[in-house]
């Protein structure tokens, strides 16, 4: 719960503010102050205000799920209102239907029945969301939002056409919630529960995002390729996120049914689903508190417009929808990231995010505290120097008629640097994909530390000890360097979503952070650990990717053009780092254009041309090889030729 977009590092603006001695509040204090103020005022607020606030709470609960789904996970859902409907109808039905009463036997009519309704709503939503997610989340691009519209509509019509759910008239006579003998029959009483649930959800989701699993969720937006290479099961994470958002919506529906005391299909139609998405997006798609902001703004705006417009225009009609649409256009044009970041910026004058204490373990490598922490993480014993760690046998890849890789065989040993070079279009990247599990060979076999990897996904390669970087840097630019690097250690920790949400993962999290900082130090970026990755130079970002790969304790390191974009000194530092890693027993395969860099560093070089290996040997042997000279002198790649001279 941190109004500064839950960035762990102090922003430059606030540091400045601190230096200038302006009055400062921490986000936590401000949040608590707001909650206390709301709690104190609650008893005195007018009836109408209380009911509006309760509605805001209900919407915000749904929007929190949408912020996670859309803003953080990159999946758009227009159909969230349908899940609210599931939650509402489940409890309305179980509380009123004679059939349900029969099931419940002696419990029928008791104060426990609404809780059975909650359970039924959650279970039904869970099953439905999982099934829908399994089908729709495989789709990408605009197909996913279109599909959510389709099932949003279907569920709405289903609710309206089921006889036992009261058809279009719905279900009346839903009883109030009773907690500990205390009936929550009015919005003033139930509103307290609504806001308590909302705040609890915000807390839990904030915790979730600030964890190993949270980093994996954020990585979904960075593209499946990157996340999978870090060992994240992206399909599973997407479904879990989708189900989580649906469950939050169902809880909102449950509360809604017991507030309204009746349900009908209207509040769960597609329009409302779209409005809920607006709330999340307008508030600030990637920020949990943006959900509350968005829900507040849009609920208030709707109320106001419904009052003002008919008076202004002299006729009644749903004109607010038109104005609403136009306003939306304006906001999205002007504030692409929603309003929360702007608000946070304005507040940053007075609100100082608490800089996370840097664990002392990072101060000195090998400190006892660090050792204690690191035992939390899975450790891999590196294979002995000289062991074959990566082996490609006759690997071929055909794209239609084009043979991009033609029966390539090569090996990589622990404790050696092997460079793969070749003119543009020679098939290096294709081969890289074959040996990292991104793509399957058309024929041939890849073995990683003795295990056949045919048909396995790249996260299996990561689990087996393969770390990699990308030719085009794939970092989460807005997140700090240390968070990016910690993602690399994903598979070395265990704690799941529930543990994270309840903050039971702190010891493991501290270990992950300590490990990430250790790798960052080792790669010489210690000074930048807490800055957003995007603010580093391209060369430094490449090094961050190496640190991220190292955090996974790989035995094989694949580097795709690591020296590209590096300045001279940076290249030297990189050479030193790679030599050191080699000495520690890593097997390193480098695809590189910079000949000077490769010739001075590599133990062995394999040269590709037109998908075929034309030479392999020590740098000296390769440089003297007539076929290699011809390949380069043949003018296939002038840039390489120049580098070679
Ligand atoms: P390099 O990385 O050595 O420059 P690539 O592996 O990217 O070469 O490409 C090798 C050849 O395979 C090129 O001719 C390229 O056009 C072709 N190729 C690469 N990927 C695909 C693909 N997905 N579909 C079709 N052809 C491809
Ligand atoms: Mg390439």
Shape: elongated
The gyration radius over C-alpha positions equals: 29 Å
* Number of separate strands: 12
Helix content: 55-70%
CATH class bucket of the largest domain: Mainly Alpha
Distance between the termini: 57 Å
Derived structural class = alpha/beta
Strand content: 5-15%
| Bound chemical compounds | adenosine-5'-diphosphate, magnesium ion
Q: How many helical stretches?
A: 27
Structurally, the number of domains stands at: 2
Low-confidence stretches: 1-21, 359-366, 635-645
Question: If classified by CATH, what would the architecture of the largest domain be?
Answer: Orthogonal Bundle
The third-level CATH topology of the largest domain is ABC transporter involved in vitamin B12 uptake, BtuC
Mean pLDDT: 86
Instruction: Give the oligomeric state of the chains in this entry, treating copies of one chain as homo and distinct chains as hetero.
Output: single chain
**Strand count, sense and closure of the main sheet?**
6 strands, mixed
What features would you describe in this structure?
With 645 residues, this protein is of the alpha/beta class. It has 2 domains: 24-347, ABC transporter involved in vitamin B12 uptake, BtuC (Orthogonal Bundle); 388-478 and 537-644, P-loop containing nucleotide triphosphate hydrolases (Rossmann fold), CATH 3.40.50. It is built from 27 helices and 12 strands. The chain has helices at residues 12-19, 27-42, 47-72, 80-96, 98-104, 113-136, 143-161, 187-209, 212-221, 224-229, 234-260, 270-284, 288-313, 319-334, 340-347, 368-374, 428-435, 458-463, 481-487, 497-501, 506-522, 538-551, 568-583, 595-601, 619-624, 626-633, 638-644, and strands at 177-179, 182-184, 388-399, 402-413, 417-421, 443-448, 451-452, 466-468, 556-560, 587-591, 604-609, 612-617. The strands form 3 sheets. The protein has a 6-stranded mixed sheet, with helices on both faces. Strands 4-3-6-7 form a 4-stranded antiparallel sheet, with helices on one face. A hairpin with a 2-residue loop joins strand 11 (604-609) and strand 12 (612-617). Helix 3 packs parallel to helix 8 (187-209) and helix 3 (47-72) packs across helix 12. The longest helix has 27 residues, at 234-260. It is elongated, with a radius of gyration of 29 Å. It starts with 11 loop residues before the first helix and ends with a helix. Mean pLDDT is 86; it is low at 1-21, 359-366 and 635-645. The site of magnesium ion has 2 residues, from helix 17. Residues 399, 402, 404, 422, 424-430 line the site of adenosine-5'-diphosphate (ADP).
């Amino acid at each position: 719960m941190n109004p500064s977009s839950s960035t762990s590092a102090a922003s430059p603006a606030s540091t400045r503010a601190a230096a200038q001695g302006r009055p400062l509040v921490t986000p936590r204090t401000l949040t608590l102050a707001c909650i206390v103020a709301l709690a104190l005022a609650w008893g005195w607020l007018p009836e109408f205000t209380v009911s509006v606030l309760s509605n805001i709470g209900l919407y915000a609960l749904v929007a929190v799920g949408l912020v996670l789904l859309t803003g953080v996970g990159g999946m758009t859902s227009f159909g969230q209102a349908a899940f609210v409907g599931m939650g509402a109808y489940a409890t309305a039905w179980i509380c009123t239907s004679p059939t349900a009463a029969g099931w419940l036997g002696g419990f029928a009519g008791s104060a426990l029945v609404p809780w059975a309704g909650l359970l039924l709503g959650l279970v039904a939503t869970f099953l439905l969301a999982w099934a829908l997610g399994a089908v729709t989340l495989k789709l990408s691009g605009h197909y996913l939002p279109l599909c959510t519209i389709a099932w949003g509509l279907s569920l709405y019509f289903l609710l309206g056409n089921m006889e036992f759910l009261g058809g279009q008239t719905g279900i009346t006579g839903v009883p109030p919630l009773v907690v500990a003998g205390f009936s929550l029959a009015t919005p003033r009483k139930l509103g307290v529960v609504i806001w308590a649930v909302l705040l609890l959800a915000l807390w839990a989701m904030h915790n979730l995002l600030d964890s190993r699993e949270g980093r994996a969720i954020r990585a979904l937006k960075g593209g499946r390729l990157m996340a999978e290479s870090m060992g994240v099961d992206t399909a599973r994470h997407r479904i879990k996120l989708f189900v989580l958002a649906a469950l939050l919506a169902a809880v909102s529906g449950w509360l809604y049914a017991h507030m309204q005391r009746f349900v009908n299909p209207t509040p769960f139609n597609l329009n409302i689903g779209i409005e809920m998405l607006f709330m999340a997006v307008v508030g600030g798609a990637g920020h949990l508190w943006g959900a509350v902001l968005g829900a507040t703004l849009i609920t208030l705006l709707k109320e106001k417009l419904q009052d003002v417009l008919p008076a202004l225009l002299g006729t009644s009609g749903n004109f607010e929808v038109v104005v609403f649409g136009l306003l939306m256009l304006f906001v999205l044009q002007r504030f692409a990231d929603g309003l929360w970041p702007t608000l946070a910026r304005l507040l940053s004058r007075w609100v100082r995010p608490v800089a996370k204490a840097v664990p002392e373990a990072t101060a000195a490598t090998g400190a006892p505290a660090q050792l204690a922490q690191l035992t939390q993480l899975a450790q891999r014993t590196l294979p002995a120097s000289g062991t074959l760690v990566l082996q490609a046998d006759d690997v071929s890849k055909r794209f239609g008629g084009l043979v991009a890789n033609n029966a390539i065989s090569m090996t990589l040993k622990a404790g050696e640097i092997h460079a793969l070079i070749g003119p543009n279009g020679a098939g290096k990247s294709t081969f890289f994909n074959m040996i990292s599990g991104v793509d399957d060979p058309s024929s041939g076999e890849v073995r990683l530390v003795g295990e056949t990897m045919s048909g396995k996904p790249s996260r299996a390669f990561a689990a087996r000890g393969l770390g990699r970087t990308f030719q085009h840097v794939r970092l989460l630019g807005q997140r700090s360097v240390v968070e990016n690097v910690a993602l690399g250690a994903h598979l070395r920790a265990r704690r799941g979503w529930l543990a994270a949400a309840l903050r039971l993962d702190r010891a493991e999290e501290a270990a992950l952070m300590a490990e990430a900082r250790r790798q960052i130090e080792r790669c010489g970026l210690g000074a930048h650990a807490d800055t957003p990755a995007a603010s580093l130079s391209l060369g430094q970002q490449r090094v961050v990717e190496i640190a991220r790969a190292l955090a996974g304790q790989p035995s094989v390191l694949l580097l795709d053009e690591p020296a590209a974009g590096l300045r001279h000194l940076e290249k030297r530092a990189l050479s030193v780092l790679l030599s050191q890693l080699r000495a520690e027993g890593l097997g390193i395969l480098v695809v590189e254009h910079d000949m000077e860099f490769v010739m001075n560093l590599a133990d062995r070089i394999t040269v590709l041309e037109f998908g075929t290996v034309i030479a392999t040997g020590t740098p000296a042997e390769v440089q003297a090889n007539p076929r290699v000279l011809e390949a380069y002198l043949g003018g296939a790649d002038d840039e390489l030729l120049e580098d070679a001279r």
